[in-house]
Amino acid sequence: SIHFRPQPQSYVELINTMASITQRALVAMFVTGVTSMHLATKPVGDGPVPTDAIEIEVYHVNQANYSGISNMNTADAAGDAFFDLRSLAQYWQCTLNKSSTPFYPGACSNPEVVSDNLVITKVSVLTTPTFSHYGECNVCVNGTVPMTNPPQKCIDGSYHCRCGEGHFSEPCDPKMGKEAVKDLVGAWINHINVAELGPSMHWLFNLAMRVGGEWYSSVDSGNCDDPNHIECDWKLNSTIKEINATCHQDAVAKKIESLGATCFNACPDKTDVHSKCYIQCYYETLLGSDSATAYPSTGGLDAASIVQLWTDAFDACPDIHAN
User: CA 152 to CA 171: how far, in whole Å?
Assistant: First the structure.
């Protein structure tokens, strides 16, 4: 979940004057309320702390060769549960039903979904209490920043954020962006006829509107630890835990398979996680037996149970940086 904790101003000033990493880490334990265990992986950076900073704990899914959250999206537990649990619906859409329109341009080649070296990271972030509009942050693919209009050139593999209303792009505000998943997806639903869509889009909409959550964006121009920042609006406080995404996917699947055993046992091969039968059972268990054709669907798990299933799997997997 997300936690907001006001930062005592005297402690914030003290952090900004500390010279050694050890001193900063010790002070941070009192300022943020994060335990010493959480500070063990990565100490606070050398930059200042945002004014009137609050702490949020968020998750991020990306490739293991990246670090930090600059020019990246993060989410609270519910928001990342939605992002992660929609993956099989996206596989259905991109691989099993190629004639359908993707969730968004570039969805079928998004490295944060299709790469084989994904990790899930939980981090503590200090941010100003005022948020800006959410920016869509993605990895550059084919020399173009995804979803930019007009297209913006970039170096493949680099992270960039796209901001702006509608289809047109504009510079991102340095402050952390924030948007409720239900608002983002709900605006989409209001402009289409869901009944005309296939199973994958029904699963997407039903999952988003049931689980909800918050999505965040953090651009480099507001990163207090970036020497070229325009404003000091946010900073990575600590990396709490990082796990292998395959461990998490296996733990989630095992729980869903146990809850929907009757459905999965009827599949020709209940171990084939990419078969239509398996994917249908997966979402029927989560969202109800009518979730492929009805919106809103009935049955399945409630929002709290879905998020708990997702976080339990995260907690069960080992930290890849643990000694």
Answer: 12
